[in-house]
Amino acid sequence: MTDKIQQLNDLIEITRDGQRFYQHAHDEVKDVRLQALFRDMSQSKTELIRALAVKVSANQEKPAAGGTMVGKLRQMYADTKAALVSDEEATYVAQLEEAEDRILHAFEDALKDADPDVHALLATQMPTVRANHDRMRNIKQSMQ
């Protein structure tokens, strides 16, 4: 597997962490507005994963199918913290905003040293990645 494909698969795994966390948080919160937000954000991650996976497959490689241990631990931490505090929804929003930070930084880092082919793909996806990040940051700030 080339460095380019490994880099794309790493991004797929980190993005899948976010997608799964949004799905999980959707099932945990009661606020229908947050459920709709989390559903939208999960769908956005699914589309991003699809775009990255197409590029991996175009290079006759297999796209990553899982997530990361860090992503799973972050979700477990959010569940534990939400169980201990009175405002579980704010806890999930804060943790999801941190997941967005992780995704944004991973894409920014990948852009720095990506070959031209991958750079073009990532550059087209960055507006969505940034918009998702900013959306969760703004929701988090509005809840504080």
UniProtKB/TrEMBL annotation:
Gene3D superfamilies noted in UniProt: 1.20.1260.10
Q: Where is the DUF2383 domain?
A: 4-113
- InterPro entries attached to this UniProt entry: CHP02284, DUF2383, Ferritin-like
Domain of life, per the record?
Answer: Bacteria
- Name of protein: PA2169 family four-helix-bundle protein
